[in-house]
């Protein structure tokens, strides 16, 4: 798994590539915790290049969402891949996360609220 992050319009963008599974998810968890601890409460996780997501990965994303919500923040996802979207639909997490087709769309949606 490859992780990167940058700031755009006071939103921290986390770019994830590869697989988010039981072995790699702790790295993503550490990054999300670190960003929140540094005062970043509006996060967008770009999952466009994620090839695989398991229950551990879902747990990390839900945990990140809980952390930012404790500070009235947001954690949105960018995902257009059908096989990954299906996981969110099956688990009912499409009702929990904002899922967008681009980083810009996610940022614009948050700013319009």
Automatic annotation (TrEMBL):
GO MF: anti-sigma factor antagonist activity
Organism superkingdom: Bacteria
Keyword presence, Acyltransferase: no
Record keywords, A-Z: Phosphoprotein
Record InterPro entries: Anti-sigma_ant, STAS_dom, STAS_dom_sf
Gene3D superfamilies: STAS domain (3.30.750.24)
Location of the STAS domain: 1-110
Family: Belongs to the anti-sigma-factor antagonist family.
General function of this protein: Positive regulator of sigma-B activity. Non-phosphorylated RsbV binds to RsbW, preventing its association with sigma-B. When phosphorylated, releases RsbW, which is then free to complex with and inactivate sigma-B.
Name of the protein: Anti-sigma factor antagonist
């Amino acid at each position: 798994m490859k992780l990167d992050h940058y700031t755009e319009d006071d939103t921290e963008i986390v770019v994830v590539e590869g697989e988010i599974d039981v072995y790699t998810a702790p790295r993503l968890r550490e990054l999300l915790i670190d960003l929140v601890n540094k005062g970043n409460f509006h996060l967008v996780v770009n999952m466009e290049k994620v090839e695989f997501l398991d229950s551990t990965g879902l747990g990390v994303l839900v945990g990140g969402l809980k952390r930012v919500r404790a500070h009235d923040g947001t954690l949105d996802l960018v995902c257009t891949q059908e096989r990954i979207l299906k996981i969110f639909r099956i688990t009912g997490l499409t009702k929990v996360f904002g899922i967008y087709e681009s980083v810009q769309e996610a940022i614009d949606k948050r700013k319009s609220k």
